[in-house]
Amino acid sequence: MPEYTVLAVASVVLVVAYELLWVRSGVLSDSRFWIAMAICLLFMIPVDGWLTKLSAPIVLYNPSQHTGFRIPWDIPFEDYLFGFSLMTAVLARWKASDPVEVADGP
After folding, report:
1. How many CA within 13 A on the CB side of residue 82?
2. Using one digit for the tens of pLDDT, what is the confidence trace for 36-59?
3. What does pLDDT average to in each consecutive run of 10 residues of the chain (106 residues)?
4. Is the residue at 61 inside a domain?
5. Containing H/E element for 53?
6. 40 HSE (CA, 13 A, CB side)
7. Residue at 103 is within a domain
8. Domain range spanning residue 40?
9. Diameter over CA atoms, the chain
10. How many CB atoms lie within 10 A of CB 8?
11. Number of structural domains the chain divides into
12. Quick one: which of 31, 59, 83, 96 could link to 25 by a disulfide (CB 3.0–4.6 Å)?
């Protein structure tokens, strides 16, 4: 069983449920969230690609623990799911704890 894949998908499901059912910060419908995700993705691709490249990997993955689907530069697809979960959880909690949003201004 590909445990890394199962955990990656479960992390997305749990974090989305956390946002929609508990925190309710509205982060998933906020365009600033998706812009932040795109910015992080731009930095994640070269770094994660360098760490996981098959020609000289620094980080090794057990092939039986994930799907084997790698895009681009040999980055395991599951890494994107974990990245989404981490950013979503942090930004949802941060936005929910801020009593006055910066966008509201003076």
Report:
1. 13
2. 999 999 999 999 888 888 888 788
3. 87 96 90 93 89 83 77 86 94 80 52
4. yes
5. none
6. 17
7. no
8. 3-97
9. 55
10. 22
11. 1
12. 96
